[in-house]
Amino acid sequence: MNRTQADLIARRTIARYRAGVDGKDRETLAAVFADDAVLHRAGGSVEGKEAILGFYSDYFPTVGHARHFIGTTLAEPDGDRIVASSVFSFLHVLDDGVRFGWGDYDHVIVPTGDDDGVIVEKTIRVHATQVVPMAVAARLLPGAGGRG
Predict the structure, then answer these.
(1) CA separation for the pair 145, 36 (Å, rounded)
(2) Cα(111)–Cα(10) distance, rounded to whole angstroms?
(3) How far apart are CA 85 and CA 105, in angstroms?
(4) Fewer CB under 10 Å: which end of the chain, C or N?
């Protein structure tokens, strides 16, 4: 696998992850994580696809509308795996406002064919987050006035 192939597979896999999280879609997330995947985040690590899906099932009700914006992904082939890092920003519509934030993702991805892959290890590092009151957020984000 060359860098161009690694880059394509990583971007597609990370984009499917983002679609699953933002769409609150367990089926999409189930397809993007390997059975023995590990998710690392500030609250600790979660091991195994079912445990990761449980983590996201608990997360989904805590936000209304959610959007993650992935940028600057760098992917490198590493044997039969791909090591990829990305920056991200996000917004979550909450009952009392909108949470904005940014951070980094690190991924280890195994290609599965058809220019796709599964995540075997994911690290989420949030570097900054702030909740803006709904009255302010509604002026910044038209349509953000409801949790939908």
Answers:
(1) 39
(2) 9
(3) 6
(4) C
**Taking Cα atoms as reference points, which of 82, 89, 96, 84 lies closest to residue 131?**
96
**What are the tens digits of pLDDT across the range 69-81?**
999 899 999 999 9
Cα separations in angstroms, 138 against 44, 92, 142: 33, 13, 5
Give the span between the Cα atoms of 90 and 110, in whole angstroms: 26
Token pair, residue 120, equals 């075997």
Within the chain, residue ranges assigned H as helices are 3-22, 26-32, 49-59, 134-140
- Residue entry with tokens 């949470």: 99
Rounded to 5, what percent of the chain is helix, strand, coil? 30, 50, 20
Other Cβ atoms closer than 10 A to 122? 22
Q: What is the C-alpha separation between 103 and 57, in angstroms, rounded? A: 22
- Per the CB < 8 A criterion, the answer to whether 27 and 16 are in contact is no
Q: Which of 61, 142, 144 is nearest to 98 (CA)?
A: 144
